[in-house]
Amino acid sequence: MQYMLLIYSDENAWTETEREACMLASMAICDELTEAGQLIAASPLHSVSTATSLRIRQGKRLITDGPFAETSEQLGGYYIVDVENLDQAVAIASRLPPATKGTVEIRPLFTLPES
Predict the structure, then answer these.
(1) What's the CATH number where 61 sits?
(2) What DSSP designation does 36 have?
């Protein structure tokens, strides 16, 4: 089963040194998951200052600079893993360094029918 692990944290919660250490530790976890055949994809995202949000209201396209959510924690990256069950996804998420300063949301992916 595939799960998406969404990484949320306050961008200002990290010092540059902590961010670099987090990136190195996260890359090591990616290497381990790749070797185990469990990593589908992973990537950090650029700062929320680069975000663009789109909404369609009354047939009109509304584009806003910045993220949609009005919260202190912003989406900062993701992992897509292929594991046997939620327990394994939770075990992986609990190892991710961003969980120490933010939140890792774990969501199963729908399997779309082949066309």
Answers:
(1) 3.30.70.1060
(2) T
Q: Quick check: 29 and 95 in contact, CB under 8 A?
A: yes
Q: Would 114 be classed as within a structural domain? A: no
In terms of residue numbers, what domain contains 10?
Answer: 2-108
Backbone angles phi, psi at 73, to 5 degrees: -95, 130
Mean pLDDT along residues 41-60: 88
Phi, psi of 109 (to 5 degrees): -90, 145
Q: How distant is the alpha carbon of residue 36 from its chain centre?
A: 20
Number of folded domains in the chain? 1
Which strand (E) or helix (H) includes residue 8? Answer: strand 2-9
Helix (H, G, I), strand (E, B) or coil at 94: helix
| Confidence (pTM) | 0.84
Strand partners, 61: 56
